[in-house]
Each structure stands twice: as structure tokens, then as C-alpha cells.
């Protein structure tokens, strides 16, 4: 049971490893005055992630938690503690390029979401757009789903589709999908917070 709707604004944390364009879309959709919820914390495993900079610019707490070689447990323990201390209700993985263990995911099941740049269950894992091009599909897209203990598995909340053109490169297809991601993620979060998923 996820327990949504909460009857008060949800406290949302975003985990991101990179530039943070999905984070930006989420910050715009869930500002402090949104009664459904707002972003209170951004966590990155990368000290130089653009996402941390974007969080600071938006006045949101930004925390780098290192992921040392073979040190997933250290990251997860620190992250779990921070989520508890900040009274976070919902975790959004947005370009977070690490696989979290069951020890992290299980206590958050139903309250942790991910976005992936393919129409899952097709093309899970890394380089989803390249995988789609190599498979010569005519359609791809993005998926927002609840995270479970698998990689890019877990119940799907919503998908948005885009065409794949014969002259597409990884860059052109990624950009087309990314524009849909920026619509899809806020919409999926709204549905979850309203108890519709
Ligand atoms: C997005 O395309 C997201 O779907 C993808 O990384 C990009 C992050 O962009 N995530 C994955 O591939 C996860 N397996 P962003 O940092 O600009 O939001």
C-alpha cells in the first residue's frame, strides 16, 4: 500500500546522476506552492552532476552521496538515512544510472518511481535508444514505472510514444524521447500522488 493521497503536500526526493533535465521538469511541475507535493531533496552519486547545480539554483537541498567502487551499501545506508531525516514520502529516479539493491528498494516499494527511455519491457538497461535503433523498431518512447527489485521492471504507470525514423541517430531519437519524458514524469507523479495508481 502506497498510502497516497496523503491529505497534505508530499515531500519528494529526486535521485539523478547527470544533467538533470527531467529534474528540471519536475521542479517546474512541483514547486513549493503545489498542494500535491514539492521537491525537498536532490541526491546524486556524482559530485559534478548538472542535477545538483539545478537543485541549488532552485533553492532545493542538493546532496552528493559518493558511490565508491563496490560501495553500494555505503551509498544506500546514507541515502536511506537522509530520506528518513528529511521525512521524504516519494522518491523519483530521474536519470539515476545505478541499480539499487532490494535492501534499499523494498522499504520504498510503491513509493519509488523511475523513468526509462524506451517502451518497457522492451530495451531495459543502458543505451535504450541505441538498442531501439539496432532493433529497427518503428516506434519507441518512454516509460514511468514503480521500481521493484529488478532492472527496469516494476508496474508501469504510463508510457508516451514517439516514431522512429529511418535516418534517426541515437542523438535525434534521444532528443525526441526526452521531450516526451518531460511531460510523462510530472503526469505520472500527479497520478500517483492523487492515488490514481
Ligand atoms: C533520460 O533519458 C532518462 O530516461 C535516462 O537518462 C536520461 C537522463 O536525462 N535514464 C535511464 O536511462 C535509466 N536507465 P536527464 O539527466 O536530462 O534527466
TrEMBL record:
N(1)-(5-phospho-beta-D-ribosyl)glycinamide binds at residues 20-22. GO terms for biological process: 'de novo' IMP biosynthetic process. The keyword Electron transport does not apply. InterPro entries: Formyl_transf_N (IPR002376), Formyl_transf_N_sf (IPR036477), GART (IPR004607). Residues 11-189 form the Formyl transferase N-terminal domain. Keywords: Purine biosynthesis, Transferase. Gene3D superfamilies: Formyl transferase, N-terminal domain. It catalyses: N(1)-(5-phospho-beta-D-ribosyl)glycinamide + (6R)-10-formyltetrahydrofolate = N(2)-formyl-N(1)-(5-phospho-beta-D-ribosyl)glycinamide + (6S)-5,6,7,8-tetrahydrofolate + H(+). It holds the Pfam family Formyl_trans_N. (6R)-10-formyltetrahydrofolate binds at residues 72, 97-100, 114. Pathway: Purine metabolism; IMP biosynthesis via de novo pathway; N(2)-formyl-N(1)-(5-phospho-D-ribosyl)glycinamide from N(1)-(5-phospho-D-ribosyl)glycinamide (10-formyl THF route): step 1/1. The active site is at 116 (proton donor). One of its GO terms (molecular function) is phosphoribosylglycinamide formyltransferase activity. One of its GO terms (cellular component) is cytoplasm. Its EC number is 2.1.2.2. The record marks 152 as: Raises pKa of active site His. Catalyzes the transfer of a formyl group from 10-formyltetrahydrofolate to 5-phospho-ribosyl-glycinamide (GAR), producing 5-phospho-ribosyl-N-formylglycinamide (FGAR) and tetrahydrofolate. Belongs to the GART family. NCBIfam families: PurN. This is Phosphoribosylglycinamide formyltransferase.
Amino acid at each position: 500500500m502506497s498510502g497516497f493521497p496523503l491529505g497534505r503536500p508530499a515531500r519528494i526526493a529526486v535521485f539523478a546522476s547527470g544533467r538533470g533535465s527531467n529534474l528540471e521538469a519536475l521542479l517546474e511541475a512541483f514547486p513549493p506552492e503545489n498542494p500535491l507535493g514539492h521537491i525537498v531533496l536532490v541526491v546524486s552519486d556524482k559530485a559534478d552532476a548538472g542535477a545538483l547545480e539545478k537543485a541549488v539554483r532552485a533553492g532545493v537541498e542538493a546532496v552528493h552521496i559518493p558511490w565508491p567502487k563496490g560501495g553500494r551499501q555505503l551509498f544506500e545506508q546514507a541515502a536511506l538515512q537522509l530520506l528518513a531525516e528529511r521525512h521524504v514520502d516519494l522518491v523519483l529516479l530521474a536519470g539515476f544510472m545505478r541499480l539499487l539493491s532490494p535492501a534499499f528498494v523494498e522499504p520504498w516499494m510503491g513509493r519509488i518511481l523511475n523513468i526509462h527511455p524506451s517502451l518497457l519491457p522492451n530495451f531495459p538497461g543502458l543505451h535504450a535508444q541505441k538498442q531501439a535503433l539496432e532493433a529497427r523498431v518503428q516506434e519507441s518512447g518512454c516509460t514511468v514505472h514503480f521500481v521493484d527489485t529488478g532492472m527496469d521492471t516494476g508496474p508501469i504507470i504510463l508510457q508516451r510514444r514517439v516514431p522512429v525514423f529511418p535516418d534517426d541517430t541515437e542523438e535525434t531519437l534521444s532528443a525526441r524521447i526526452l521531450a516526451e519524458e518531460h511531460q510523462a514524469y510530472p503526469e505520472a507523479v500527479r497520478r500517483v500522488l492523487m492515488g490514481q495508481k
